[in-house]
Every structure is written in structure tokens, then in C-alpha cells.
Write a structure and sequence with these properties.
Length: 231
Amino acid sequence: MWERVTIGQSGAAVSRRAGVYRKTSDVEDLVGEGERLVWLRVQGIPAAEVLECEPGLLVTAEVPGRSAAEPWPDPDRIVDSLADFTRALHALPVADCPFDRSLAVTVPEALAADPDLDDLDDERAGWTRDRLVAELLATRPADEDLVVCHGDLSVPNVLFDPETGDVTGVVDAGRLGVADRWLDLAIATRSLVDERNSQYGPDAAARYLERCGTEPDPAKTAFYRLLDEFF
Ligand SMILES: Nc1ncnc2c1ncn2[C@@H]1O[C@H](COP(=O)(O)OP(=O)(O)OP(=O)(O)O)[C@@H](O)[C@H]1O
Ligand SMILES: [Mg+2]
């Protein structure tokens, strides 16, 4: 029997069975997601192993451990480990990455997308699509500090060893690609300050950025969170 895990924001259904996770979707590019997971593992970055992958279906081996969204006795350890993982990912050579998530790709994709206006971040609650688009175009950063980004680095998507706190693997890599590092940093910190993840909070987000070796960048943080509203 498959046990239902989630229905993702973009309509993917995830279920699990003895050591295996199965994701199905009519709309998401699950072949692209499988290719990205395989590529990550080849680079030495821990990620779910792909067992089966075809249009509409992605089957992965269960990554051991628990996600950062589960309760942890020492949340600081998880934050540090998430930061170390982020640094390792962002240290990969961009020239070796065949996936492009730079603004040249993602802004046109956003302009063609149909954002869920009922699921906007609090600071944009009630905005129209036109207003989102206008703000996106008006605040598009002039420069991009390109690294290999996961693309959806929120706390449920990273798993950790309960004994050591080390990262055991990432999942949900369908939007991995070369992009400004703030694509990941903006989403990771938003996830850390999200009230649903109350074991973390603003201090945890500050700790994460410091360990990533980055000064806060409010403009890029705001822009990449806005961009994420479209996906
Ligand atoms: N191979 C795996 N090993 C362990 N846990 C997994 C695995 N695949 C998925 N999960 C768990 O299931 C959750 C949902 O899977 P996933 O993140 O891929 O889908 P989603 O967020 O619902 O989809 P999307 O955002 O693409 O619509 C993950 O957050 C993770 O906790
Ligand atoms: Mg996910």
C-alpha cells in the first residue's frame, strides 16, 4: 500500500512505501527533476537516488533521517548543517552544470506562469498578478552572483542524520540550476523564519547566513522571494 505524503504546491502527488518515494504529476517536469538528482549525486552532493523516472513519474529511494521541518533537539546544529550543505552546493563549478536557472530563464518563465494568488506570502497578500509582474520587473537585480542552486531550498526538502545532524540528502530538485546564490538563500531564510517552523526563527536565519559567509542582502532577498511566488 502506498501512503500519501503530500500534494505539492504545483500539483505533484507524493506517496511512500517501504524505503521508496513515488512522485507523480501531470504538470511538473519529473524527468528534469530526476536528471537533476542524478547529476547532484555525480557531483558528490547527497541527494535522493533515482530508481525510476519517466514523464509524469519519479521514484526515488528513501533518504535516511528526518527533514529539517521535523522537531530537532538542537535546531542550531541543523541550521549549521544546512549552511554547510549550501556552501558545498554553491562551491560546485558553474561551468559543469547543464541546468540554467538564471534570470534570463526564470523571468520569462515567471511572466508566462499563472501564480496562485490565494497562496502569496503575507507581505503580498491580496496582490493582483499585474502587481506581482510590475514589482518583479521593477526590482529585477542588475547583477547575478551565479552558483549552482537547489532552487527550492526550504526546510522540508533537506534530510539529516538524527545521530550526527549531518545532511543525508536533498529531494525536490526540479528547479536546480545555475542562478544567483540568493535564489537559495532567500528561500532557505524564508523557510527558517516561517511560523510553521517555530523551532527556528530570525536568529536561526541570521546564524544560517553568517555560516554561509554572506552578508544579508534585503533587495535580493525580497526579489527572489517574489520570483518564487510565480512557481
Ligand atoms: N526520497 C525521499 N526520501 C525521503 N523523503 C522524501 C523523499 N522524497 C520525498 N520525500 C519527502 O516527501 C516530501 C514531499 O516530496 P517533494 O518535496 O519531492 O514534493 P513536493 O514538495 O510535494 O513537490 P513539489 O514542490 O515539486 O510540488 C519531502 O519534503 C520529503 O519530506
Ligand atoms: Mg518539497
